[in-house]
Amino acid sequence: MALSSYLFTTQTCVGYKIHGYAAAQSMKKSDFFGLEFIGIKVTHIPGFVGVPRISSQPNPGSGSLYRRKSVVSASWLAGSQIASSAFTFGTVAVLPFYTAMVVAPKSKFTKKLMANSIPYVALGLLYGFLLYQSWTPETMRLMFANQYWLPELQGIAKMFSSEMTLSSAWIHLLAIDLFAARQVYFDGLKNNLEIRHSISLCLLVFRSKMYTALQKIRKDKEAEPTEFEENVAQALFDLENTNQELKSDLKDLFINSALQIDISGSKKAVVIHVPYRLRKSFRKIHPRLVRELEKKFSGKEVVLVATRRIVRPPKKGSAVQRPRSRTLTAVHEAILEDVVYPAEIVGKRVRYRLDGSKIIKIFLDPKSRNDTENKLETFAGVYRKLSGKDVVFDFPVVEA
Q1: How many CB atoms lie within 10 A of CB 114?
Q2: 78 pLDDT band (50/70/90 cuts)?
């Protein structure tokens, strides 16, 4: 989300918006799209976390503004940052009220505190702001996707995949639960009843977590997931909530990305990239997870690959050492092991042709023949897509 501001002078009106802290600092004297910004200073408004104020301090000796309108974009006050800050602020803000009602329900301070309407006004304003920010032209279509203008579960789930929408719903729940706890509190004082357990129950209700498919995919640089990636994340979310065998294992797992690859003819495969630090956790449930995902994707074969980065070789004379695991060869070998997992590679042969090309032949453990024999073509297609290398998979001949 962009923070927009307008700089007015006696000669010209220049509109600009700044999305990034680094870009804002570098704009002291920079030329963007033919417009020179001079003496722009970024400060912070007290009381607003992460929200900057941009003020102009002209420098008479540095030049003047061109009479052109320009828009400067970079991302710094992203919507996810606002949603995260609002989520944390709302959650922490209501805790003192619950603490006072539970610890000292009959004290004058608690009675005066709960009679105050400021918390509800503040939560209401925060909810209205988040609701306004999360509202898009697609919202109505997602809410009333049915031909009879009735909500559908898939549309609501997709709408709540946005962090801003999720944060607004959370603040809405906080306000409702605090209001309910307040009514219980005053009713208990009026009738001289013990209400600590009821207030604690309200506290537990709003503290319950809100799980959506959004938590099952985390892309780099806060990139938006594609429609197919959302479908994969939704499938993982459904398995976590419906499959008792995978529920506990999938609780803290998520993916980085997903793509669909054409193998041959109408045959397709689903490649899911998982975080490198979670690869061991995914491997523990690999056979069961792949089996369930293949059911959800109509028999398409699923391959899990850990996300790895290739680092360029250091320049000559540089003292920087590149880790062996970040070289091109090491990454391609690791991807090969991920593609064929849970089968193990027991041999490798490289055949060089007269034209200079080569074919890599990979031998897999015969023990896994029953589970992987029908996937050899998929393994070859996926590895070719990820590494650009042609490989042939086979099983070694075991002599009797």
Answers
A1: 20
A2: low
